[in-house]
Amino acid sequence: MLSRVRVWLNRTYAENVFFMDQLRRNPSDRAVEIHATHGDADSPVLAAADTADLEPEGLSPAGYVEYALDQCRRRGIDVFVPRLHQSAIVAHRADFEAAGTALLAPTREATAVFEDKATAYEAVGAVGVPVPPWWRVRTADELVAAVEALEADGHKACFKPAAGAGGVGFRVITRTPFSLVHLNGFPGPYVQLDLVLDALRRADQPVDWLVMPRLEEPEVSVDCLTGPDNRVRLAVGRTKQGRRRGFTLDDRWLKPARLIAEGFGLHYLSNIQFRMYGDEPVLLDVNTRPAGGLHQLSLCGVNAPWAAVQLALGEDPGVIEPPFLGQDYAVVSGPRPVLPSVPAAREETDVVLAPPVPVEVEPVEAAAAVLPL
């Protein structure tokens, strides 16, 4: 009889309650126990786990590595899926292996390349993957120069932090003066150039932004599963056009994604995003972690989280071809339980949850609902 697998997810996105569900419903019928840690006592991943704990705040990356190693030893973790402080953790892969824990994370070199978007664009462009024109901006004068160059070519300029994830800090530049029009409806991504320049000139430290043209839809996120031998086992594109979502195996998207995943050591689960620059797909971003929407591949008959855990355990699932591509769908929200009560601070006490019981409601924040559109 196969032993149960103990998996830990640290400070991850709420959507990863789906990731956890898929691990438990794995096609190998293997027993899986999940440990989760987070800084937010009301994160639904804590309630969805078998055991859970609040993470200490204020740890340096090195301090967090020590905390993580202690968790793995005490909890008997077989597979650790790190999101927070991923770079520091993968630099100590040998220490985790000595503790009996496999890291479901890419190589140290890969995380170094893709932590910084400018470095990533330079590296990916050098191997022949198309990237949009971009400028690294730290001052108001540099921003003006980049915006004027883009507008001269007929583009809308946008910016985002050179290091960041999840669309945090993304804004689109507009020259339309601020007025009551901008106070109607819901807030949007547009920001007036004069307001940005004023903020930059008053700031006491420089920013570190990437300025580029606003790229057009469709947006295609390619979920890749890559082995430690640098061979891709699974690659499926998830398309986004407004509210409509779907799937694709078109080589326009999959070929450059495979090139990046295999060429840069993006082992295990990664997510590589593209958009259109004119008539050409270009790289948008590379995530060295499982995407929040990874669970949507279940609509294609694929359990990517479990295949990744198998790879981490040395049980190669082989090349995975989706048996079908699911119909187009939309993403909706729904309720998910949270813990009844977790003290804001405590000593070495754990939250131990009852065995998981299937919940009939859709999970919070990013439920994939198949809808006729």
Notes on the protein architecture:
With 373 residues, the chain is α/β, with parallel strands linked by helices. 27% of the residues lie in helices and 25% in strands. It contains eleven helices and 18 strands. The chain has helices at 17-24, 44-48, 61-75, 86-90, 93-98, 108-114, 117-126, 140-152, 193-202, 251-263, 304-312, and strands at 5-10, 32-38, 51-54, 79-81, 102-103, 135-137, 157-161, 171-174, 190-192, 209-213, 216-226, 232-241, 244-248, 268-277, 280-287, 330-332, 351-352, 367-369. The strands form four sheets. It has a six-stranded mixed β-sheet with strand order 5-4-1-2-3-17. A five-stranded mixed β-sheet has the order 6-10-7-8-9. A five-stranded antiparallel β-sheet has the order 13-12-11-14-15. It is globular. Mean pLDDT is 91; it is low at 343-349 and 354-373.
Q: TL;DR of this structure?
A:
Helix content is 27%, strand content 25%. It has 11 helices and 18 strands.
